[in-house]
Amino acid sequence: MSPRVSAVVVNHRSAAEAAACVASLEDAFDREKIVGEIVLVDCASGPEEVRALERLPADVRVFLDENRGYSGGVNAGLALADSDRLLLSNADVVFGPGAVTELLAALEDPRVGAAAPLCFWDAGEVLRLPVETGPTFFGAGRRSFPAHARRTLRLWSQGGGARHLVGAVLAARRDVFDRVGRFDERFLFEYEESEWEDRVRAAGLELRFAPRARVRHLFARSAVRNPETERRRAISRRLYRERRWGRAGRWLLERRDARAPRPPGVPRVAEPVLPARPGAWVAVSTNPSLVPFAGAPLAADFRLPEDVLESLPPGPVYIRAFRESDGRPLETFVWDKP
User: Fold this and answer.
1) Dihedral of the CA atoms 170, 174, 180, 185 (nearest 10)?
2) Is 230 exposed, middle or buried (0-12, 13-18, 19+ CB in 10 A)?
3) Topology given in CATH for the domain delimited by 5-129+166-225
4) Contacts of 51 (CB under 8 A, 6+ apart)
5) Which of 33, 39, 49, 201 meets the CB 3.0–4.6 Å disulfide criterion with 45?
6) pTM tops 0.70
7) Alpha helices in 129-228 (DSSP H)
8) DSSP code of 251?
9) Where are the domains of the chain?
């Protein structure tokens, strides 16, 4: 029997996380009565990682001799996947109950080109990760935060069409890849899904956020293990900006980046905490604009979870309380992670 879904899991120096990802997929296939296969791809993580990955119960294993990035890992997995329903995943993802079924259901709508789940950052499922993180030319300022917050809360609760989807988990049909092409491997780290999603939307297909599909994404864990991360991200960012907005647009954005200091007047706090505040949410971001942000309701006292702290690099973390009804900021602080 052909698999109903091929799950392509791409690993780089994350064997422990890949083991949890594969286990959650196996459990999902069993509990949700899905005929599925797991295609495990490693991007040149080294012999120790390979030995650990060989012990995992994957149906297909692909060990690449070079780090072709997430884009190259996905493409290598797609070449060997048997199903016309595809689930693309970072290794640092754990699938929650019913998530695979919900994502496959979204693909039954022929208008949908790709679907993504609601991602939680922490094991306690307190902090929701952003829905839309696609690059924009004009960036984000104080005036745009309320509109962005309202849209984010609506997507988190109701789902629907999105301008971009986070690439940690993407579900798509094979015919979509046949129509718009595979990931561009010139994007060495990040931006590959944004560029591919631009092509999906240009083909008249919808990017759908499916919040009833829930996963945990151990965001930024593997990136900090790779000393090449920042260089590879910079190459991808430059390529994406120039492709979308031309050389002049890319140059203007680079100048803006260089001139972006910490906003004045934001008070520092000694701990990343906020007290409970009925009718409010907390936004957390390393971006001074807090667009995009991870968020949680302030129904109870909030403290940045310990497992999230582990994944954050040293530097400023911006924390904002905002009103649920209209997204209006109530108070903003900055905490400096040592």
Assistant:
1) 60
2) exposed
3) Spore Coat Polysaccharide Biosynthesis Protein SpsA; Chain A (3.90.550)
4) none
5) 49
6) yes
7) 145-158, 174-180, 192-202
8) H
9) 5-129+166-225, 273-337
